[in-house]
Amino acid sequence: MKKIKINGGKELEGTIKISGAKNSAVALVPASLLSDEIATIDNIPNISDIDALNEILEYLGAKVVRKDSKMIIDQTNLKNKEIPEAKAKKLRASYYFMSALLGKYKHVEMYFPGGCSIGARPIDQTLKGYRALGAKIIENGNKFIIDADELIGNEVCLDMPSVGATVNTILVAVKAHGTTTILNAAKEPEIVNVATFLNNMGAQIVGAGTSEITIKGVSKLGTGFIEVIPDRIEAGTYTIAGALIGNKLKIENIIPEHIESLTSKLKEMNVPIEIHNDYLIVSKTDKMKKATIKTQGYPGFPTDLQQPMTTLLIGCEGTSILEETIYENRFQNIPFLNEMGADIIIDKRKIHINGPKKLLGKEVIATDLRAGACLVLAGLKASGTTVIKEVEHILRGYENIIEKLANVGADIILVDE
Ligand code: EPU
């Protein structure tokens, strides 16, 4: 069992380079299946979620070459096979394969996807998109058998701006007959990255990044290239680390606009932060003001930074309030933070963080990816030693987290015992 051990209190100084975005890469890899030739994705993060997708690609017969951060995927011998439950359950993004295969072959058999256990995470909006384009769905327990004689473009109005349902509807519409319009689409930068990749291969998608996306079906996709955008959640996590315990910590390879909801909140809180073209510099302060934050879809404050941000709010004078509007079970980090010395009260979808409180190192559990990131930050700040168990969740989404933090002065190691 892998654990992360941190001796806290060490100032972070130097540069952290941000990797390719997990939530883009995990959609781009399955999207590549829509090409009938060779697709190349650069700036792929080296995380275990990508390994799990790579396994599915190879299982389907794609030839994958990975060199440094490049992934070259040859689809010429691809077969449409049922994806086994164990592979589908490894991650949420496995359902992008369901849509890419349905879009390409008009038939797919797959199981309910996995992912962090942070709420119910239904896939009804994705299925609504499939049905609108003419697919028939048979649900057999956890298994979906989906067929379409023909996929025909249609209007799909999402009940909520779901990232997954937006990407899935794009994937299924790219090769459909006629035009599909997605209304109330999610506007996350990762969606723009996926649409750009598909357009580079010959798709005709307009409006990605806005709430109305139009997809004119095409019969064939050729070769294509894309570079994964920088990971805004990784950038946000390390920026929070800098605000917590940094001394002019430089976070480079970022798109500042993608993390504006965080950086503007940090400025309101009095955190010293300088933002440049593709990097920022952030330091700690002992004059941090409390904050009120509500998670929202992009460009609002991201749910994926809610848990890391909680660690920072523990050090603020007064009561900060954080409201989670996206997932109903994203407070599993709170009991551990309280054991470490925080005073946080959960009130339905809100937490009240009474500060400032000092943190003490403890043995804690990473219940999910971003809860794990929150506890790493808490360990960096705490006095004494923090041991984080079940760190597989963290390694799914943060490339080289141990090396990146150790390089800027953290006393952090991965132990396998
Ligand atoms: N929802 C439904 N029905 C659906 C789809 C979504 O009710 O068919 C609800 C969800 O239950 C949730 C909300 O809509 O309450 C938003 O879910 P969304 O579909 O946008 O999330 P997702 O696509 O499953 C992606 C990221 C998440 C990130 C969210 C929100 C990937 C692989 N995952 O999830 O990332 O939190 O968007 O931005 O892209 C993470 O990286 O830690 C993570 C969980």
Give me the secondary-structure topology.
Elements (H helix, E strand, L loop, with lengths): L1 E6 L7 E3 L4 H10 L6 E5 L5 H12 L3 E5 L2 E5 L10 H4 L6 H11 L1 E5 L12 H9 L3 E5 L2 E5 L7 E3 L5 H11 L5 E5 L5 H12 L3 E3 L5 E5 L7 E4 L4 H14 L3 E4 L7 H9 L4 E3 L3 E4 L9 E3 L11 H8 L4 E6 L10 H6 L3 E5 L2 E6 L7 E3 L3 H13 L3 E5 L2 H4 L5 H7 L3 E6 L1
Parallel strand pairs: 2-14, 3-13, 9-10, 17-18, 21-22
Antiparallel strand pairs: 1-22, 1-23, 3-5, 4-5, 6-8, 7-8, 10-12, 11-12, 14-16, 15-16, 18-20, 19-20
Helix pairs in contact: 1-2, 1-7, 4-6, 5-6, 8-10, 8-12, 10-12
Bound molecules: uridine-diphosphate-2(N-acetylglucosaminyl) butyric acid.
Question: Overview of this structure, please?
Answer:
The chain has 417 residues and is of the alpha+beta class. The protein has two domains: 204 residues, Enolpyruvate transferase domain (UDP-n-acetylglucosamine1-carboxyvinyl-transferase, Chain), CATH 3.65.10.10; 206 residues, Enolpyruvate transferase domain (UDP-n-acetylglucosamine1-carboxyvinyl-transferase, Chain), CATH 3.65.10.10. The radius of gyration is 21 Å and the shape is globular. Bound molecules: uridine-diphosphate-2(N-acetylglucosaminyl) butyric acid (EPU). Uridine-diphosphate-2(N-acetylglucosaminyl) butyric acid binds next to helix 1, helix 5, helix 6 and helix 12.
